[in-house]
Amino acid sequence: MLEAVVAIARAARLHPILAVVPGWLAVPADVVAVRNDDPERGMSRSIQLGIAAMPTEIGAAVILLGDQPTLPAASVRALLAARGARPVVSASVDGLVLPPVLLEHSAFGMVDRLDGDIGLRELIRDDPGLVTTVAMEEMPRDVDMPTDLKGL
């Protein structure tokens, strides 16, 4: 699935591409591996590690989830096109804020407040004035179990 999400990032012309992965997982040659040797600490830890590893000259980071291999690259490009005065750009479906999420460099510090297996959703919902939402037609399917793969 990592390869599918990396392909989405490539198609959206994201660069550099960083992947937060367990220590044992190999990544494609053009991807920067950010090792998470304690994935049990949840999604928040992965987001924190990824943002901390971003080059300082990067203006923004797009957070893609490894369990959404069917996300259209056009959705990522829509986030990029919506960049503006607000520091967060997020997808939304029927008014519900969902990944992927774009964080401007000025918002990188938000991730320090994360804890456990919760991403940015709660922080974004707590302060909607920080967020530009981009309406998507449907949420990409999560692939969390082997049976989910069969449904694709």
Percent helix, as a range, is 25-40%
Relative strand content: 15-25%
SSE-based structural type: alpha/beta
Count of extended strands: 6
On the 0 to 100 scale, the average pLDDT is 90
Supply Rg: 15 Å
Contiguous runs where pLDDT drops below 50 for at least 5 residues: none
Determine the number of helices (DSSP H or I, runs of at least 4 residues).
5
Q: How would you write the strand order of the largest sheet?
A: 3-5-4-6
The 3D shape can be described as globular
**Roughly how many Å apart are the termini?**
12 Å
The H/E string reads HEEHEHEEHEH
Describe this structure in words.
With 152 residues, the protein is of the alpha/beta class. 26% of the residues lie in helices and 22% in strands. It contains five helices and six strands. It has helices at 2-11, 43-52, 73-81, 121-126, 146-150; strands at residues 17-21, 31-35, 60-63, 88-93, 96-104, 131-135. The strands form two sheets. A four-stranded mixed β-sheet has the order 3-5-4-6. A hairpin with a 2-residue loop joins strand 4 and strand 5 (96-104). It is globular, with a radius of gyration of 15 Å. It starts with a helix and ends with a helix.
Keywords, separated by commas or semicolons:
152 residues, alpha/beta, four-stranded mixed sheet, two-stranded parallel ribbon, 6 strands
Provide a short characterization of the protein structure.
By secondary structure, the chain is α/β, with parallel strands linked by helices.
